[in-house]
Design brief:
The protein has 530 residues and is an alpha/beta fold. The protein has 3 domains: 288 residues, Alkaline Phosphatase, subunit A (3-Layer(aba) Sandwich); 83 residues, no CATH class; 69 residues, Arylsulfatase, C-terminal domain (2-Layer Sandwich). It contains 17 helices and 14 strands. The strands form 2 sheets. It has a 10-stranded mixed sheet with strand order 6-5-4-3-7-1-8-9-2-10, with helices on both faces. It has a 4-stranded antiparallel sheet with strand order 11-12-13-14, covered by helices on one side. The chain starts with a helix and ends in a 7-residue tail after the last helix. The structure holds 2-deoxy-6-O-sulfo-2-(sulfoamino)-alpha-D-glucopyranose and calcium ion. Calcium ion binds next to loops. 2-deoxy-6-O-sulfo-2-(sulfoamino)-alpha-D-glucopyranose binds next to loops.
């Protein structure tokens, strides 16, 4: 009888005892939010583009869910960050572009978690001015950060740390989780600098990625006919605007020898700045890979046509960009193993995303900013075995605006009424069947680097309406079903009159719903332009 009673109590209470040990009951799961900077979904193999292999990130899709139409509300680093923290559009949280000041005194989801018993940490790239609020611990890069032997500010103290940035960011994340107070749930924002420009891979990945040839997108040689002024005047073409030295790794001395001029003059200094951070041995390893590539380029440069140059530059770009993704993917693998070894894998939500998408040669471009698909969309994968059935794929129009409400919802906390996003937890556990049918987008950083004009717009499942304003007043409409690459603006076509009118109505509704207006657009225009 006694044995029976003991067994009975063990059966009832064991799960609780175990959960308490592994850090939190199901009601308060742990959260690891992984955000990499500029990681286009095309560079995650689970999205099926065939460019590279990311087996560890893919595991999140296999063991959890993948969103194929997740988008951001403003395709730029710091603004996207601010949206993540606040759950509010840029014109409400104030961080409209990389220059604007972010007011840390406003509410953010990390502050709410912290107040409700979560331990919180922020590790890696942050790219925001001011002292972060809402985190018990922070170890952040300065501004854009460095790839090799980078400087970190660890709880307010600056330190240079030997190693490769993505590995160090992973190390620090795992260390913090290992040392946490196990009686409380935790939330860590694990933010990789990679694959942000200027795409410097870990030395161990150089050989593999520089010896590959990547498939070109079919619109690599886009001439921008069929679209308005904005696409034609943007400065993000791989042939014309990418830097030869910092981006393509051509030593400045070789550029002088070949008579190559830089589009942005400062970038020549960046080349030595980046590589100058390496030890002599590291630099020798680097040179052993890149010197032969440059010697070959030097021999053929004067005979190359513009097409050949574009192709060469695209390959150089992909080799380095995808090379940096490799260490990010390995980091995710280490994290998943660590969670498993420590009995945390069942009760920890792991989210993988980027601050926006990125052009990997589509339209001949690199960078982001536009509301066109490759930069509007962002990868989103999420694993949480306790609640998310493995192997789900969702086309729902979720956005980074929804991250703060979703995380608070999973944490069992109430979502502040003024957050503009919506929790997508219900989409993943099958309780929610209705979702928004359109997403709203704004972009402000103009005139500025890459010269992408100010615009706002709306995307539904099938169509996209964009308004470029400020020094132009142009509308574009795309039929994403017939023209998924967005090569032909159909705004003025009679066949699309009805769609155009419907989309205008939807855009007006979205602007009213999300509290945006022409007055807001003007408010963010520098005074001299009024
Ligand atoms: C830097 C980059 C740009 C990039 C912005 C914003 N140039 O200015 O190419 O668009 O950052 O990127 S660089 O030569 O300095 O690398 S963001 O992801 O931080 O918003
Ligand atoms: Ca970014």
């Amino acid at each position: 009888m006694r044995l029976y009673i003991i067994t009975f109590f063990l059966c009832i209470f064991m799960p609780w005892i175990l959960m308490a040990q592994t850090g939190k009951t199901k009601k308060h799961p742990n959260i690891v939010y992984i955000m990499s900077d500029d990681h286009g979904y095309q560079a995650i193999s689970a999205y099926g583009y065939g460019l590279n292999e990311t087996p560890n990130i893919d595991r999140l899709a296999k063991e959890g869910a993948i969103f194929t139409r997740a988008t951001v509300t403003n395709s730029l680093c710091a603004p996207s960050w601010a949206v993540l923290l606040t759950g509010k559009h840029s014109y409400i949280n104030g961080k409209i572009d990389n220059e604007a000041t972010f007011d840390w005194n406003q509410n953010n989801f990390a502050k709410i978690l912290q107040k409700n018993g979560y331990q919180t940490a922020l590790i890696g790239k942050i790219h925001m001015d001011g002292l972060p609020q809402g985190f018990d611990h922070s170890a952040v890069l300065i501004d854009q950060g460095e790839y090799y032997n980078p400087n970190f500010i660890i709880d307010g103290v600056k330190r240079q740390i030997a190693g490769y940035v993505s590995d160090l960011t992973t190390d620090m994340t795992l260390d913090w989780i290992a040392k946490r107070d196990t009686s409380k749930p935790f939330c860590v924002l694990y933010h990789q600098k990679a694959p942000h420009r200027e795409w410097l891979p870990a030395l161990r990945h150089l050989q593999k990625y520089t010896s590959k040839t990547y498939k070109e997108p079919s619109n690599l040689f886009d001439t921008y006919e069929g679209r308005g002024t904005a696409a034609k005047t943007a400065e993000m073409n791989i042939l014309k605007h990418m830097n030869w030295s910092g981006d393509n790794k051509i030593p400045p001395a070789l550029m002088d020898e070949l008579g190559i001029k830089e589009y942005l003059t400062w970038d020549k200094a960046a080349f030595n700045g980046n590589l100058g951070r390496m030890t002599t041995a590291e630099r020798a390893a680097w040179d052993s890979i890149y010197n032969p590539i440059m010697a070959d380029f030097s021999r053929k440069y004067h005979d190359m046509s513009k097409e050949e140059l574009m192709r060469w530059r695209y390959q150089r770009y992909m080799q380095d960009y995808l090379g940096t993704v490799a260490a990010v993917d390995e980091g995710v693998g280490r994290l998943l193993e660590f969670l498993k070894e420590n009995g945390l894998d069942e009760n920890t939500i792991v989210i993988y995303t980027s601050d926006q998408g990125f052009y990997l040669g589509e339209h001949g471009w690199f960078d982001k900013r536009f509301m066109y698909e490759e930069s509007l969309r962002t990868p989103l994968l999420i694993r949480y075995p306790a609640e998310i059935k493995a192997g789900q794929a969702s086309k729902a129009l979720v956005q980074n605006l929804d991250f703060a409400p979703t995380i608070l919802d999973y944490a069992g906390l109430s979502i502040p009424k003024d957050m503009q996003g919506k929790s997508f937890r219900g989409l993943l556990n099958g309780k929610e069947h209705r979702w928004r049918d359109a997403v709203y987008y704004t972009y402000y950083e103009y005139p500025s680097i890459h010269m992408v004009k100010r615009h706002y717009g709306i995307r539904t499942e099938r169509y996209k309406l964009i308004h470029f304003y400020y020094d132009k007043d142009e509308w574009e409409l795309y039929d994403l079903e017939k023209d998924p690459q967005e090569m032909q603006n159909v705004y003025d076509l009679e066949a699309y009159r009805k769609v155009r009118e419907q989309m205008h109505r939807k855009l007006d509704e979205a602007r009213a719903h999300y509290k945006d207006s022409d007055e807001n657009d003007k408010r963010f225009i520098p005074k001299a332009k009024h």
